[in-house]
């Protein structure tokens, strides 16, 4: 948020701000997918394995 504030007040670098926003969005997307996947595990390693 500080980078955005500095950018909008004319004290921040365009490249630095865009890079920070891209990184933040990427990290949020990663966590969004992890949350989404909790309802559907990818591997059923031990399903039906009743020994």
Gist of the model:
The chain has 51 residues and is an all-alpha fold. The protein has helices at residues 2-8, 14-37.
What does this structure look like?
The protein has a domain at 2-36. It has helices at 2-8, 14-37. Helix content is 61%, strand content 0%. With 51 residues, the protein is mainly alpha-helical.
Q: Provide the helix percentage.
A: 55-70%
Distance between termini? 54 Å
For the secondary structure, the number of strands is: 0
Ranges where pLDDT stays below 50 over 5 or more residues in a row are none
Class inferred from helices and paired strands: mainly alpha
User: What is the residue-mean pLDDT, rounded to a whole number?
Assistant: 87
State the oligomer. Answer: single chain
Radius of gyration: 20 Å
**β content, as a range?**
under 5%
Outline the secondary-structure elements.
Elements: H1 2-8, H2 14-37
